Amino acid sequence: ETDYMGKRWCDSEAMNACLHRARAAGIPFFDGEYLAKITREELAKVFSGTIEMPMLDERVTILRAVGEKLVADYKGKFHNFVRSCAPKLYAHGDGLLERLTKEFPRFEDVSMYKGDQIQIYKLAQLGIWMMHLTLSPRKAWKLEDAHLLTAFADYIVPVGMRVMGIFEYAPELEKQINSLTIVERDSDAEIEIRASSIYSVARLTDEINARRKGLEPLLMPQVDFRLWKSYHATHWPHHLTVTTMY
């Protein structure tokens, strides 16, 4: 949580508040050269709040790598990277999602499950969706295949599914989550929770659209947002996983 402009913000809204505060203070946070050299102290100051940002050292490493890539190949600007990609998630290797997860390992959110590679791509998809929402009304940039986006699988969607009775956990997993015991990254339980979130939101979106005949179909990110907005501040326990992929 962080306090800004007379209000206390939490979760991703706190992150956005911190970034707005940094920009207002003249910190060039979106410049590749700045990110490539960012220090732990600088990042801690940008994201100052009621506690120190979790996994701060890992995030410094991530941002430096992103900054170095932007400086090396895209004149230090992320918009140059975006413009170099097809305005689609998938375009025979040239789609924004395809290249983002390939050129920036930070976004390669994949797990191995019983011999199969499971591609989640939560943050990559969320970032692209937010760009689409922000820029398409201005006709500055538009994602041409937004209907292919999935839910953004992290901690919160499973909470909504659990509270509404759509999810029912095995007794051992229910006990683990309710006791705030860590669910290990890439464990079967963590992968199943995230994959089930994506599948459930897809099914829920289909069912909602079937009842909205004559109206513009909802997309999965829109249904995801309703779940996130309703449950991100709930006190119902969510699974705890040490990861930078959420």
Largest sheet: 2 strands, antiparallel
Helix-and-strand structural type: mainly alpha
* Parts with pLDDT < 50 across at least 5 consecutive residues: none
Say what oligomer this is: single chain
β-sheet strand percentage: 5-15%
Q: Spell the H/E element sequence.
A: EEHHHHHHEEHHHHH
Q: Tally of extended strands?
A: 4
Question: What order do the helices and strands come in, and which of them pair?
Answer:
Elements (H helix, E strand, L loop, with lengths): L1 E3 L2 E3 L1 H14 L7 H5 L3 H7 L9 H18 L4 H7 L11 H8 L6 E4 L2 E4 L2 H14 L20 H8 L7 H8 L9 H23 L9 H12 L15
Describe the structure.
This protein is mostly helical and 246 residues long. Among the domains are: 83 residues, no CATH class; 76 residues, no CATH class. Strand 1 and strand 2 form a beta hairpin. Helix 8 crosses helix 11. The radius of gyration is 19 Å and the shape is globular. 25% of the residues are buried. The model has no long low-confidence stretch (mean pLDDT 96).
Précis, in short:
50% of the residues lie in helices and 6% in strands. It has 11 helices and 4 strands.
Descriptive tags:
246 residues, mainly alpha, two-stranded antiparallel ribbon, 11 helices, 4 strands, 50% helix, 6% strand
